Structures are given as C-alpha cells and as structure tokens.
Amino acid sequence: MKGIRVATSDDAIGVADLHYRVWRPDKLSAPDTRVAFGSLFSALFIDPPAGDPLMPSLVYEDAQGAVAGFLGIVCRPMRFRDKPIRMVVATQFMLDDQVPSSIGLKMLRQALEGPQDISYVDMANPRGARFAQAIGFVRLDAFSRHWLRPIRPIKLACVLAGQKFKRSSASLPTRAVDPQACQRFEARSVGGLTPEPITADVWMNDLPKLMTASFVPVYDTRWAQWISQRLCHTFEGGIARGVLLRSSDGQAAGWYIYQCVPGQIGQVAQVLARPGQERTILSHLISDARAHGLAAL
User: Fold this and answer.
1) What does each C-alpha distance from 257 to 40, 230, 253 come to in angstroms?
2) Is there a contact between 197 and 242 (Cβ–Cβ < 8 Å)?
3) pLDDT on residue 1
C-alpha cells in the first residue's frame, strides 16, 4: 500500500535495508544490519513500553511496496518539576533520496499530532534534520556535540586511517609501540569506588538519587527491565557495557554506559555523576575502556 502508515513488526527487514542505504554503516554489512534490526525493531518501536499505539512509529511505502521512509517513535514517561508528562523521541528518521521532501514533512507532522506533551528528534540524517527545523523544532547544540578521547593513540590513528582508506586497522602493527605512546594518556588512579553491573534494580533504586535536574525520566519496573535488556544487545559491532560505581558508604557515586568494541572507537551513551565525583567517574570510564582494549571513546 503506497503512502504513510503505522509501522508493524513485519517492517523490520524493510527498515533495516533502508537504514543500510541511507546511513551506510562502516561496521555492518547489509545482512548484519538485518540481523541487528531484527533483534531490536519490535522491542524499540512496536511493543510496550516503548511502543504505544496512540503514538506509533511510521513507515512510507513507495509504489513498489518497498519501505522508502521511516520515523521511529519511542514513548517515554518523564517528570518536570514533579509533574508527569509524556515525551516521544523521534529517531532513525530517514528517507530514500528519491522520496519527495513533502513526505518527510508529512511524517513529522503526523507524529506531532499525537497526545504527547513534548517531542524530541534524535538520530536524523541532515535531510531529516532540515525537515524537523522547518516545522518548528529547535536544534539543541549542547546535545549535538561530539568529542574524542584517545586511549591507545597509535591504534586510534590506524582505526581512523582504516576508515578513510577502507582498510582493516587490524592489519597494521601497533601493539609494540602503543603502550609507550599511551603513557601520556594514562588516567588518574581511581580508588574507593566499587564497580557493579547496571541492573533493573539499579535503574529503579539508584538513578533517582543521582538525578537532580527538573526534567528527568521516570523508571517503573517495566522501563527498568526494558533498558536492562537493551544493554544485552549487540549492535554496530559492540556490546553496551554499563557500570555503576558505589562509594564506601554504599551510595551510588555515578555510572557510565558505553559501546564496548575492542580495538575500535567506543560510543559513550551516558555518563552520570554525583556532584564532586565527575572527574573520578570519567577516570574510571577511561580505565575500564582501556582494560577492554578500546582505541578511544
């Protein structure tokens, strides 16, 4: 059926193929992209708690019945100054090059007509970002910045060179010289904190104690379990690693979640610290990434 419609679980393969055409991920082949999306698609965009029939994800089918556009919607309960509100995160917004711009605008406008209180767009390609700004979205520069922290500088140089010239960095000799080059990047010693994995209980019991902002997410049992399960999935060549750090009095000092890809650049998803513990949490993150063989964060 040509046109915009509500996404279903059956669209996983079509959306995966669209993702590969639009984003061209370096770390995944087309079949690998299908596997990654197949394992996550329904849990992220269709099934509760993230999927909500009142605020559904959308696809656009072309005249041949192929998925040529996608707008993923993740529904999140939030709290603003103790008032519960509903937020949707519009993510993975993508269109094939031949799809008219008017289709993208229609998809965004349709998503905005839901009962949510606030909408947020994440993971849009440049074309999708222009559509969002055209209908009133405001770019948040504080959330649009990227940083790079070298851990194994020579290995990192090989990774970046491999990305530029489409070669495998594993074929370049770095092991002999990298430890000496890394000395200037060594993190400060980290003491007095005990690491433990981030579990559903941690999301429920420890996260609220670390959040002091007026606008914060709400985690009930379903959401805590949902996020804990997402940390177990492999995507784009790495496993999400989440670590909570407790001080000697048993209180949560902070945590971090990052993409653990030995020998590559790991993407940091979240860093949270109690006031005064910021440097310690970051140092522990860098030490943990080094221990797992990452080239950089």
Assistant:
1) 18, 12, 14
2) yes
3) 65
Comparing C-alpha atoms, which of 257, 264, 201 is closest to residue 233? 257
Are the C-beta atoms of 63 and 49 separated by less than 8 Å? Answer: no
Which one-letter amino acid corresponds to residue 186?
A: E
Cis peptide leading into 217, omega within 30 of 0?
no
pLDDT tens profile 20-64 = 888 776 656 667 777 777 778 898 999 999 999 999 999 999 999
- Residue among 133, 252, 128, 260 nearest 201 (CA): 252
For 241, phi then psi, to 5°, come to -115, 120
Given its phi and psi angles, is residue 2 left (phi above 0), alpha (psi -120 to 50 degrees) or beta? beta
Round to whole Å and give the CA distance between 47 and 53.
9
State how far Cα 28 lies from the chain centre. 16
Residue 297 has what DSSP assignment?
A: -
Q: Is 272 helix (H, G, I), strand (E, B) or coil?
A: strand
What is the pLDDT averaged over residues 120-134? Answer: 79
In three-state secondary structure terms, 169 is helix
Give tens-digit pLDDT for 171-199: 444 444 444 433 443 434 356 899 999 88
* Whole-number Å distance between alpha carbons of 297 and 284: 13
**What DSSP designation does 27 have?**
T
Q: What is the pLDDT of residue 28?
A: 61
Q: Give the list of residues 6+ apart from residue 174 with CB closer than 8 angstroms, or none.
A: 152, 154, 155, 158
